[in-house]
Amino acid sequence: MTTAQRPLPSGFGPASTAEDVITGIDLTGKVAIVTGGYSGIGLETARVLRAAGAEVVVPARDLERAKAALKDMPGVEIEHLDLMDPASIDDFAATFLATGRPLHILVNSAGIMATPLARDARGDESQFATNHLGHFQLVARLWPALVAAGGARVVAVSSRGFRFSPVVFDDLHFEHRPYEPFAAYGQSKTANALFAVELDRRGRVDGVRAFAVHPGTIIDTGLAKHVSADVVRAAGAVDDEGRPVRDPARQFKTIPQGAATGVWCAASPQLAGLGGVYCENSDISPLVPASGEAGWRAGTETAGVLEYAVDPEAAARLWEVSERLTA
Ligand SMILES: NC(=O)c1ccc[n+]([C@@H]2O[C@H](COP(=O)([O-])OP(=O)(O)OC[C@H]3O[C@@H](n4cnc5c(N)ncnc54)[C@H](OP(=O)(O)O)[C@@H]3O)[C@@H](O)[C@H]2O)c1
Asked: Over 80: is that where the pLDDT of 301 sits?
């Protein structure tokens, strides 16, 4: 049965942290992979899952940076993976599958935002390739381990930035329209949300459930490195002195708050038997009308997902296109 796109309510909220939502949950015997688990939201996710007892694997395109970031987390495994390089995705998955371990939790936190136009070796636009296609391929290759878990969760770390753009199926890679960095980011984050919808539909028969997550606006991660200080200030994420604004009710969160929803989706028993929904503030998001757009821009509407980011038909179409693009 399809899970309703509306709050449970979970009892958690915008200020909840990853530690809050994992309290009382024992992940001993569970295996988790956290892409991007060596920076920002992913790093905190890896830390909290490990502290709850999970075996944690962090795929990294920069092994030395990953080793430095994870040096205080004994037992976390690091393996090479570059989401822009399909062969490295296959190699990572083959290495993991060769261990014979099931995979109970996959958190797809790696991502890039508003980068200058770049393409991978196949010619695919880099934000779509990294944020969506790389993770699509990773899930496909890890499928046997997810099924073997007998109850697995995949968390697609999306963003409210999905509002910048739907998936533009006629020109996924900006070949026929001017490149706009935030439109490309928005398209990739809508793709993350749609991926969770279709992955859940296809996976639930095998016990694989999927969730999409908006973490909040967390300015002290590495994500905004391609965004100018003016744009960051205009978004309200820093004050006039450049200090991060902390106001979780308006989505301006710390890293522990930003990691909370993904950890909740990965591990909470409150979501048993559910999936295919977009979540934020450690709860399922409400579905909101597109007419609320002005409120979102003015900052009065702070939560909610639009229909186009959870539309089952678009999700099915994206799946077929992604299968073709990743062969
Ligand atoms: N921070 C926010 O306000 C916010 C808001 C909404 C959604 N999100 C989402 O949250 C997720 C985590 O972002 P963050 O804020 O924690 O950013 P971050 O600190 O920059 O972390 C992103 C991670 O992704 C890795 N990565 C990037 N490209 C990769 C590739 N080709 N292959 C493998 N790994 C790659 C980065 O590795 P390198 O260090 O090697 O580049 C880094 O470890 C992203 O999906 C982002 O879209 C963040």
From this structure: no
Work out the percent of the chain whose per-residue pLDDT is above 90: 94
Contact (Cβ atoms closer than 8 angstroms) between residue 81 and residue 61: yes
Q: Is 75 left (phi over 0), alpha (psi -120 to 50) or beta?
A: left
- Name the residue of 33, 34, 38, 41 to mutate for ligand 1: max ligand atoms within 8 A of Cβ: 41
Report whether residue 62 contacts ligand 1, using a CB cutoff of 6 Å: yes
Torsion angles phi and psi, residue 210, rounded to 5: -135, 150
Assess contact for 326 and 137: CB atoms under 8 A: yes
pLDDT digits (tens, 9 = 90+) for 173-208: 999 999 999 999 999 999 999 999 999 999 999 999
Residue 292 has pLDDT above 90, yes or no: no
Q: If you take atom 45 of ligand 1, which residue's CA is the nearest one?
A: 111
Residue 217 CA, closest ligand 1 atom number: 3
| Ligand 1 midpoint to CA 1 (Å) | 32
**What mean pLDDT is predicted for residues 157-170?**
97
Residue 175 identity = E
Element (H, E) at 173: none
How close is the Cα of 284 to the center of ligand 1, in Å? 22
Mutate to test the pocket of ligand 1, among 70, 83, 113 (most ligand atoms within 8 A of CB): 113
- The set of catalytic residues is 185
Model pTM above 0.85? yes
Domains of the chain: residue spans and CATH: 18-325 (3.40.50.720)
- Establish whether residue 83 lines the binding site of ligand 1, counting it when its CB lies within 6 angstroms of any ligand atom: yes
Which ligand 1 atom is nearest residue 82's CA? Answer: 32
pLDDT of residue 299: 72
Among 309, 314, 277, 282, which Cα is nearest to 296's? 309
Q: For residue 291, what pLDDT is reported?
A: 76
